[in-house]
């Protein structure tokens, strides 16, 4: 880490960032590469599930992860989310049976009512909703380098950070652009 800037997201959003980063694209390592890996990861994150994870839940977890990666990429220029992304988020929220309850103190809580992995995935989407409400969501990004796409929390003053600091991707992207320009010039 060259800049000394923490890439961690605030509070409950950090879990979302960690979920996206269960796939290390550059190294080809997937921490939730099979159903047991997914169960272990969700369990270690404190989300359950109590029992084994089914194949359909496994597939939905991977769809959610890539939808969140795309959504975080869209935060770079605040472009509109593809319908494919909102469809996945809607589906996870629906399956998780997210419910709201109000308190006498004029407060409210949202919880995922579904059990198992679908409930756990719903908890991840809930944290996205919280982050959108809190205004922190636009700073959750993935590295602009297409071979990296590591999720990071952009703490730059203007919210214009493009690359994760972990792998010096900014420098490497500039070197690649320079090489491309040279190749074009030749
Ligand atoms: Zn990177």
From TrEMBL:
Task: Note the Pfam families from the entry.
Answer: ABATE, zf-CGNR
Q: Which InterPro entries match?
A: ABATE (IPR010852), ABATE_dom_sf (IPR023286), Znf_CGNR (IPR021005)
The superkingdom of the source organism is: Bacteria
Domain Zinc finger CGNR, chain residue ranges per copy: 139-182
Entry protein name? Putative RNA-binding Zn ribbon-like protein
Q: Which organism encodes this protein?
A: Paractinoplanes abujensis
């Amino acid at each position: 880490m060259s800049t000394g800037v923490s890439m961690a997201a605030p509070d409950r959003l950090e879990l979302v960032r960690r979920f996206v980063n269960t796939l290390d694209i550059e190294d080809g390592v997937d921490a939730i590469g099979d159903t047991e890996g997914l169960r272990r990861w969700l369990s270690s994150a404190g989300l359950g599930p109590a029992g084994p994870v089914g194949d359909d839940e496994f597939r939905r977890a991977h769809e959610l992860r890539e939808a969140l990666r795309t959504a975080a990429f869209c935060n770079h220029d605040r472009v509109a989310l593809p319908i494919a992304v909102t469809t996945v988020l809607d589906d996870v929220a629906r399956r998780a049976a997210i419910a709201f309850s109000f308190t006498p103190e004029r407060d409210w809580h949202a919880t995922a009512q579904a059990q198992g992995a679908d409930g756990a995935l719903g908890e991840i989407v809930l944290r996205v909703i919280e982050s959108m409400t809190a205004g922190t969501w636009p700073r959750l990004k993935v590295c602009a380098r297409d071979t990296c796409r590591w999720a990071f929390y952009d703490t730059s003053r203007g919210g214009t950070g493009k690359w994760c600091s972990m792998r010096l991707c900014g420098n490497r992207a500039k070197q690649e652009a320079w090489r491309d320009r040279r190749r074009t010039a030749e």
